[in-house]
Design goal:
two-stranded antiparallel sheet; 2 strands; 73% helix; 7TM_GPCR_serpentine_rcpt_Sri; membrane; transmembrane helix; transmembrane
Length: 173
């Protein structure tokens, strides 16, 4: 006897929306704190503002915009968010949008830490790197990791389509 697989994602949608309801006010409050703190108290204020904005965008894209359902229970990519109604046939575009926002968020965080620790190093130290070189280094590393993820995602599409068809057959019972 074949076991019917539960394909409902209502619990998942509710959990993601609750996560956004919690994370958006926290990120917005953090952004307001960064904006209204005096400039003398915060040296990397611009990077922190960019990081907060990227975090808010990434949270929105994941929790409201696309709601990716990666494992359900097989490796299958389905989206249930707002962009599913705007771009119903382009799951690849929606996932790439999430990857881009995640990598921007990670790059701003890395840049913030790198600039912070570079500002601690004394001026004459040979390990001190200029801010331009820090930004260039972060861009190179982030571009490498982003391209690695995109290439892996593109090559995984046939496997995802096979998993999707086996998932549909298993859920029909």
């Amino acid at each position: 006897m074949a076991q019917k697989i539960d394909t409902e994602v209502e619990w998942y949608l509710k959990a993601m929306h609750i996560s956004e309801v919690i994370s958006f006010p926290m990120n917005f409050f953090g952004l307001l704190v960064v904006i209204f703190v005096r400039k003398q108290e915060m040296t990397n204020r611009t990077e922190v503002i960019i990081f907060q904005l990227c975090s808010m965008l990434t949270d929105f894209l994941i929790n409201i915009g696309t709601l990716p359902n990666i494992l359900a229970p097989y490796p299958i990519i389905r989206t249930h968010g707002i962009f599913s109604t705007i771009f119903p046939d382009s799951v690849k575009f929606q996932i790439l949008l999430i990857l881009i926002s995640i990598f921007y968020t990670a790059a701003t965080l890395e840049l913030m830490f790198l600039l912070r620790y570079q500002s601690i190093i004394p001026i004459g130290d040979p390990n001190k790197v200029s801010p331009f070189k820090c930004i260039l280094l972060i861009l190179i590393v982030s571009t490498f990791w982003f391209l690695t993820c995109v290439i892996s995602f593109i090559y995984a599409i046939p496997d995802l389509e096979t998993s999707r068809s086996s998932f549909i057959m298993a859920s029909l019972g």
